[in-house]
Amino acid sequence: MATDVISERGGKSDFWQGVRLSMPVVVASAPFAVLFGALAVDNGFSVLEAFLMSALVYGGASQMVGIQLFGQHVAPWLIVLSIFAVNFRHVLYSAGIGRRIAHWPVISQALGYFILTDPQFAVAEARAVSGKTVGFAWYLGLGLPVYVCWVVESALGAVFGKLIPDTHALGIDFLLPIYFLGLVLGFRKRPLWLPVVIASAAASIIAYKTVGSPWHVSIGAIAGVLLAVILPPHHSGVEAKR
Amino acid sequence: MSTTFWIIIAGAIATYLTRVGGHLVISRFDNIHPRVEAGLNAVPAAVLTTLVAPAALSAGPAEWAALIVTAVVSLRGGLMAMFLAGAAVLILARQFVG
Which residues fall in a coiled-coil region (chain A) (predicted)? Predict the structure, then answer.
């Protein structure tokens, strides 16, 4: 980027450069934040709880999964485990971004990992790959607007979600499966995607009919992950990268 | 404090562990076994599929139409486009078939 010359002037311009890059993410995540707030209230959360979950967990898909299971009166530990499972990909992000931000003070690193979402990782990693330093001011400029908007918009969604009269006619109860299907399809370029989806779908349906909810989530997820582990690594395309 | 509150706190801690854990673990190992990496790569699709498949099976024509449209739009559009298309079809179909 040509404007990168100004980054030598110091933290302030770095910060605003990050803010500019954050705008598409702010716009794209806004509808999901509002939707999360509305669905959270629909599934029995208070406005404060919806706000707290966005502020503390700050992971869109996992928050949706959490409230979906909450609405099904699933055991608390399984809700937490599901949030953990959906966010588990962040293990890979933090493993990858760690070497880019190792020069920051420890407190800054701790905060940096807190706001490490999918787009945050993607944009920061792209900057590092292009040979530029990932500075704290730039990283914060990229992440802070997304965080603040996410939390405020979820609270707004929760407040106004209460005012929706007929949630069935508006399809509110089935929006989450549609959203999750969208997420699943978004991963379709990954190695072993189709076998994993088929295994998880079959196992979760069978478990849903026999063992019952909420176990179908864990059983289906384990089936898909085990299949990926068992199949020879060269089928997964992992080895080719190394 | 309510159960919901503690679920949120525990979920927040679990999430933060994933966001810092990869760095903490990877700085101790030289490389990850390819099978473990394949398993990690499969986690999101495996988990999210279990939240769609049984719901789709026990749904009706309006919901099926929405899911099919979502899948078709995914061939071209991003997450937002597929979601909005699916939601629009669902709302429309429910006006007619309930």
Answer: none
